[in-house]
Amino acid sequence: MTVQEFETLVNKLEKQASANPKLYRFKVIMLTGLGFGYVALFLSLFLFLMAISIVMIADGNFTFGNVKVLLLTGALSFFIIKALIVKMEMPDGYYLQREEAPKLFEMIDTLRHRLNTPQIDAIVLDSEFNASVAQISAYGMIGKKRNVLVIGIPLLSTLSQQQFTAVLAHELAHISNSDTALGAKIYRLRMSWGRLLHSLEENEQFGTFIFKKFFQWFYPRFDAYTFAMARQEEYDADRSAALATSSPAMGEALTVISVAAPYYYRDFYSELFQECAKTNSVPQPYSNFNEKFQSLSEQKATGYFNEQLAEESYMTDTHPCLRDRLSALGVEAELPKIQQESALDYFFAFPGRVISDFNKMWVDYNQDNWKEEIENFNESKQRFEELSNKQVATLEELLEKAYLTVEFNSLEAAIPLYEEIGEKHSEDPRTAGALLTLGEHYLESKDTAEKGIQLIHLAMSYDWELRLPVLDLLCGYYYETEQSELFEKTRGELEKWEEIVEASNEECDYIQPTDHFITHDKENSEILAGINQLAQYREITNAYLVRKQLTSIPERPQYVLGLELSLPKNTDLDEAEEALYEKYINGLGEFEHSCVIILNDKKDLRKSLLSVENSMIYSVSDKEQAS
User: Fold this and answer.
1) Can you tell me the distance from the alpha carbon of 552 to that of 570, in angstroms, rounded to the nearest whole number?
2) CB half-sphere exposure, 407, CA atoms < 13 A
3) Which tens digit of pLDDT belongs to each residue from 425-458?
């Protein structure tokens, strides 16, 4: 099914879901049952054949055929059962107690009775600008379910008491309408089916084709049906929230979020960073956000609001766009007034303590990186001032000056530099990023759009990593300018390239002794820096570095760093590997684009790496001899 066919189907199904929600839900349940039943049918068949094989072997019919059937059906049954057990973890965050926010718990109890919802088992506070409700089972498809309400501190500190109450009602309405229960089951089934196919394909079981062909037909239709249902449920939850509180309160909540959320995620932290860079200080982000949002200029708020109003309902998000949601509620699209008292102040017994605790957690986790970033920022700013005061000629300095001009001044100020790069150095592959930036700028004007497209294609030819964002950019441009033929052609290229990238990712993830390895092409300075990192780990005795030749994207660099370890005799390598890999991946950052592999129990792979010329880059024995 193509993307266009998927969009057409979703649009058709949305009308059906709106016209008769109960009938449509029944169709989704039946479609879900079809997928689950298909898997259950073959699982039953495999278990039945396995049981027959066991009985026959137990009766003395010990033949190669019986053993083969037993092994194959047993393996397939194992993978199916393993895939069906999808454990959903409880969300991370601070688990709120009733005495900490008695008014909040009372309001939830009131809304529960109005909306006839089940009990909320836990309220979790986190750092996102969002609120959601989840239904979590301990053992995948079975077991007692817990209703968990997750609330973001930035959302609490932005909305008023009435606005936040409407948001609470919206989330609880999902449970009242049984959305979450059905949605959670569907989510777990989708995870199960995906894991099932991955397990079968990864282990090359003979039964892969039984599931693959079915799911190639089933998945797109299931996605379309559940997408339309999820979007309809958002409208239903808005209506229920409006009835439980009021339409103006729900509308105001949506409009405030349309301003505050993009500000929080896009601009707040960058503004805060620049302020802290001047004083070399660590921020208190949750306190700072409330203060900065209260003082947000009307011009900036209007910009965010109008931008959100211009958005359309896309197939990438089940939530309808702001304009459609306000229209469904019968509420005028007006810029919201920023409230002085927040829901956090109203509902919590000690709101200052909550903000303080979240500030402390943020600082404990981020302050080292924050200080390092500020140091780098100040160095970059000093370098920008240095380059601004002189005429640069080399490509390296031109690229650096253009990048820093964007960071510390504006894109408009950097355009002459990018144009100079394009005129003088467009044949150099190092200009790929600059050509893409200039091409994007040219797309904004009809007079220069064609030139921009040429530059964008040239940038894409220089760097394989730019191909995905470039094709996505061109798809959007052709769609907005109603160039349907070019849009379809480019979308086809994008879909094909996504498949190639996925195949390349698999090549990078799975390293086999039979892979084609060649001598690495890293600079001596990189190798020396990497060796210094290897020397920090006393258990590493030998290290090998090679480049894996990829077939899907040959120009993509992929290296294999093989490590031989000297571990205590009683060490269980299988148990220790996960911790060791985490340690090495975090600590061997000098080896870019490298897959780290412990070779102690991989003799064939070690032999393959050792056969490559100059593959050994580090040895403890060499180090000891040198000392």
Assistant:
1) 42
2) 19
3) 999 999 999 999 999 999 999 999 999 999 999 9
